[in-house]
């Protein structure tokens, strides 16, 4: 019997269900972004596996492990819940479980802005970012796929000329604007 060109039991598109779920939840607009995050996760896992193959007392291994964990904590991929007495965010075993595509998606500007209560939904935050209402530090960011580190998270604010900022300040009573300016 001849070999079939198509395997009917294992489809190539089986992973698209998980992919679509993550893309819908975090409002990832481009599939290439998802694949880039997936490749990054694979590279980080491969690096951690190669480091684990070195002898445990090797000074290079301990130095690289702490550097990798510190970098992942600073980026925001690893959380501080499993903190040890050291300054980094966890153990090497956390990399296998916690470095996921969803962890990278949670560091996108739209998701962080939604978590900071700048928008009700991630979709609304994406619209605000694309329209130029949100800045990070002095720079106006119009790409919702911008990854926000822990240090940059404190500098996410409204653009000074944003109408949304004026409405929020007026509602909070921080500025007084006559009602005819809102029509």
TrEMBL record:
Pfam families reported in the protein's UniProt record: Ribosomal_S4, S4
BP GO annotations: ribosomal small subunit biogenesis; rRNA processing
GO cellular component terms, semicolon-separated: Mpp10 complex; small-subunit processome
Listed CDD domains: S4
Chief place of localization: nucleus
Protein location: Nucleus, Nucleolus
Keywords: Nucleus, Ribonucleoprotein, Ribosome biogenesis, RNA-binding, rRNA-binding
PROSITE patterns (UniProt xref): S4
SUPFAM superfamilies attached to this UniProt entry: Alpha-L RNA-binding motif
Gene3D superfamilies: RNA-binding S4 domain
Record-level Gene Ontology MF annotations: rRNA binding; snoRNA binding
Domain Small ribosomal subunit protein uS4 N-terminal: 2-106
Ranges where the RNA-binding S4 domain occurs: 107-172
Family to which this protein belongs: Belongs to the universal ribosomal protein uS4 family.
Protein name per Swiss-Prot or TrEMBL: U3 small nucleolar ribonucleoprotein protein IMP3
Organism: Puccinia sorghi
